[in-house]
Amino acid sequence: TQLLEQSPQFLSIQEGENLTVYCNSSSVFSSLQWYRQEPGEGPVLLVTVVTGGEVKKLKRLTFQFGDARKDSSLHITAAQPGDTGLYLCAGAPAGGTSYGKLTFGQGTILTVHP
Amino acid sequence: NAGVMQNPRHLVRRRGQEARLRCSPMKGHSHVYWYRQLPEEGLKFMVYLQKENIIDESGMPKERFSAEFPKEGPSILRIQQVVRGDSAAYFCASSPIWQGNTEAFFGQGTRLTVV
Lengths: 114, 115
Hints:
By secondary structure, chain A is mainly beta. Chain A is 0% helix and 54% strand. Chain A has strands at residues 5-7, 10-14, 19-24, 29-37, 44-49, 55-58, 61-65, 71-76, 85-93, 103-104, 108-113.
């Protein structure tokens, strides 16, 4: 069974601060996806990283995939209240029959105070 | 380009009743996945289906739960004789043929409350 450990579980910061969320596993993933989920809504895909060592930037968000494809991080620069929400990482299995059975981390609840 | 559509958004059932949750995948997507999100927990995989086939149901409870994706129409997640512990948000995701870097897109979910 593949597991993704996501940390921290809760993050409360002031507007303008930087933050990093981590996802770690002992398993290798073929790809890793980051989602953001608002209360009462479904997860919305932010980015997919596929190649070990890959870095992707989405405005103030920077996503990194570890060289061994076992871990990933999400870094937000100069956080804004609009960034408040639940952030989820999810890994797609590597090897064997390939399909999108995602393993999710527990999520990070981010609150950015004005 | 319509996204993944789930209905109903909210469903209230009394203990012992049946719940039917529907999911229409994105246009062009032939793969459907169901996930369950319990309060204070992350999303857990339940089942993966293609048209008329259940490919992986390793996350489905052994009893009372079933899923189908018929040739025509939406995918259905069916829960018979619901109990309070079935209260959760149920999400459907869809993707095209999976090729490692394929992305899965989620619907808005059905929030089931068992009273």
